[in-house]
Design goal:
The complex is a heterodimer. By secondary structure, chain A is α+β, with helices and mostly antiparallel strands. In chain A, helix 3 runs antiparallel to helix 4. The longest helix of chain A has 28 residues. In chain B, strands 1-2 form a two-stranded antiparallel sheet. Chain B is mainly α. Chain B has one domain: Up-down Bundle (Formate dehydrogenase/DMSO reductase fold), CATH 1.20.1630. In chain B, helix 4 packs across helix 9 and helix 8 crosses helix 9. The chains are: A alpha+beta, B mainly alpha. Chains A and B meet through helix 1, strand 2, helix 2, helix 3 and helix 4 of A and helix 2, helix 6, helix 8 and helix 16 of B.
Chain lengths: 179, 484
């Protein structure tokens, strides 16, 4: 970014997902790594083409579920056995089978909250502004166009060379992403 | 393109309806592109002139919301005595309505979560408003137990929190389980719905032409830009939420049925209740989805998206769950006889011939007899017949809950403790008020948010798929994502 202070990157526009995945594969083979693709719906194989195929979302959800499960059971155990033990029809204070429904509900609740907030946090959302929004045609990324953006921060980035490369991919249009 | 579309449609009309193989019917009308799907669905929110019928509906449902407010205000001032509840029937309309509304909500979760996991792609055009239906139905459901508390402003006593009274909830009680089940269900449904909305809110943000639209949708979309990395995490999170919602929906209605089965009352203490309640919930929920979908597709011209195939499939689900419910009725009857328990047998005969016999026989008519019409393909393909049947089933399922709650309570073991129950005008006002509230919220939802998932509809088009040959290099090894 220090070398090319005027722009944030270059963005190529495609009109179908297959061209975009092909272009992304070529860019990856060409050695570009700091790039991202933008599509109006999840495109099969695109994240893999970017070399991104691991995410910690499942792990976060698992941890959320475990917290809900053990926390939920402990809550009931603590209240029924330690904090406020009360004899109901001679049943044991730790009536664990009766604690399962609430434990289950709290497991699901915490796992779902973890999935929601974990996904947003890993995606860096909410993020009201991002340089890609400076490209006027980018509003079509939520309609029917597919974009590949190579960032100026990529070590291989060169405003002239990269633009020539993107144009060789049969993009409909290549535009500068202003900072 | 247009000619081709007209030709296909003409062919469809020419060929005999009954000769079409259901599985070959399209889930989306012909001739659509990514752009046309986006424009058509977002135009309902952004550009189309709001139809007069919408304003009329909103005005009428708002009137009913005012009726609800009046009934609730009076209840808060006077207490639950304005309702018909008393000993022995302490659970009147409030619990009937609670179970009915929460059951309606379950179809939304079934469509959005379970059908997603089963890879039923036809669900795509109906899941968004079915989820909205879930949320509003659970809101209506939640009102009743709270109002039934007697002092609703003390509702937070239901939750465990450190308090100066040193009193805590009794975790061995299904009524406490209910608090956790319903509040979890509401939260998870809301999260699931909102996650599904994020990309569509971004679409609305980019397409809104006035400042308010851009600002409000922009804030709600939270800066979503459709990055491939974001989509990757998004899809995993969405799938996991679906996986969590699936056992949740079963557990919620199971816990609701525990409210009854844990008691020793004849007609309540039965092991068949959990599956039979869940099936009944889905049965009535699909009836409500049809009640909403049929007018929606007609008034907004969405026949391309909510096709005959959708109606047909929903009718089949209704038929299947209706049969499970009918089996439940049969087993209840059989077990009452087979158990040799005279109280159980008396309760069964009391349902058939006692003072509430019209309720019992209406339930049989609405939930068992009339739904058999759905075996006919002609009925499943006729919007009018389906709409009427959906209304019949909704009524029948409300009456079924009335039968379970009221008839069992009104006559338990000792004749000296028997008593009759009937709802008062305030019971009816509260119930009709929640119906108005539900319609009011649905109308606002249809007007201000995309009622059909735009991004998922785009994926239904053939051009949304990526050719297999391009899946090489980079993150791919031998046609599979490499985990390096």
């Amino acid at each position: 970014m220090e070398r090319w202070p005027s722009i944030n990157g270059l963005m190529a526009e495609f009109d179908n997902p297959t061209s975009l995945v092909e272009a992304t594969n070529r860019a990856f083979r060409e050695g570009y790594r700091r790039m991202d693709a933008y599509t109006p719906f999840p495109v099969d194989g695109l994240a893999e083409a970017l070399g991104f195929n691991r995410t910690r979302v499942p792990l976060i959800v698992l941890l959320g579920g475990l917290v809900g499960c053990f926390g939920g059971f402990f809550l009931q155990y603590y209240i029924s056995v330690i904090y406020w033990p009360i004899n109901v029809g001679g049943r044991p204070f730790n009536s664990w089978p009766a604690f399962i429904p609430v434990t289950f509900e709290l497991t699901v609740l915490c796992a779902a909250l973890a999935a929601f907030f974990g996904m947003l946090a890993l995606n860096g959302l909410p993020k009201p502004h991002h340089p890609v929004f400076n490209v006027p045609r980018f509003e079509l990324a939520s309609r029917d166009r597919f974009f590949l953006c190579i960032e100026a921060a990529d070590p291989k980035f060169n405003p002239v060379e990269t633009r020539r490369f993107l144009e060789s991919l049969e993009a409909r249009e290549v535009s500068d992403v202003e900072d | 393109m247009l000619e081709e579309r007209e030709r296909t449609m003409a062919e469809e009309t020419r060929s005999d309806v009954s000769s079409i193989d259901t599985t070959k019917l399209p889930v989306i009308g012909p001739g659509h592109t990514f752009a046309s799907i986006t424009d058509k669905i977002s135009s309902i929110v952004l550009t189309q002139k709001t139809p007069k019928g919408w304003f009329l509906g909103l005005a009428f449902s708002f009137f009913l919301v005012m009726v609800l407010s009046g009934a609730v205000a009076l209840l808060l001032v006077m207490g639950v005595g304005i309702w018909g509840v008393n000993i022995p029937v302490g659970w009147g309309f409030a619990i009937v309505n609670f179970v009915w509304w929460i059951g309606i909500g379950h179809a939304g979760t079934l469509i959005s979560a379970i059908l997603l996991l089963l890879n039923q792609r036809w669900r795509t055009s109906i899941n968004r408003f079915a989820e909205a239906m879930t949320i509003f139905a659970v809101m209506c459901a939640g009102m009743f137990p709270l109002l039934h508390l007697g002092r609703p402003w003390m509702f937070y006593w239901l939750f465990p929190y450190p308090n100066t009274m040193n009193v805590q909830p009794q975790f061995r009680s299904p009524l406490v389980w209910d608090v956790f089940a319903v509040s979890t269900y509401f939260t998870v449904s809301l999260l699931f719905w909102f996650v599904g909305l994020i990309p569509d809110l971004a679409t609305l943000r980019d397409r809104a032409r006035n400042l308010w639209g851009r600002v409000i949708y922009g804030m709600l979309a939270m800066g979503w830009r459709g990055s491939a990395r974001h989509w990757h995490r998004y899809e995993i999170a969405y799938l996991l939420l679906a996986g969590l919602a699936t056992p949740l929906v079963v557990s919620v209605h199971t816990v609701v049925s525990f409210d009854f089965t844990i008691a020793i009352l004849p007609g309540w203490r039965s092991t068949i209740f959990p599956p039979y309640f869940v099936a009944g919930a889905i049965f009535s929920g699909f009836a409500m989805v049809l009640t909403l979908a049929i007018p929606l597709r007609r008034f907004y011209g969405l026949e391309d998206f909510i096709t005959t195939r959708h109606l047909d499939n929903m009718a089949k689900v209704m038929l299947a769950t209706g049969l499970i419910v009918a089996y439940g009725y049969l087993m209840e009857f059989f077990m009452a006889w087979r158990s040799g328990n005279k109280f159980e047998w008396y309760m069964t005969m009391n349902r058939l011939r006692g003072p509430y016999w019209p309720v019992y026989w209406s339930v049989m008519l609405c939930n068992v007899l009339l739904p058999q019409l759905l075996w006919s393909r002609r009925v499943r393909r006729s919007t009018l017949a389906l709409f009427l049947l959906a209304l019949v089933i909704n009524t029948g399922m409300w009456l079924e809950r009335y039968l379970i709650v009221v008839v069992s309570l009104s006559r338990d073991f000792m004749p000296s403790a028997w008593g009759m129950y009937r709802g008062t005008v305030w019971d009816y006002a509260t119930f009709i008020g929640t119906l108005g509230f539900f319609v009011f919220m649905m109308l606002l939802f249809i007007r201000f948010l995309p009622a059909i998932s735009i991004f998922e509809m785009r994926t239904l088009l053939p051009e949304a798929g990526v050719k297999e040959a391009t899946k090489e290099g980079a993150g791919w090894k031998d046609g599979h994502p490499s985990t390096a």
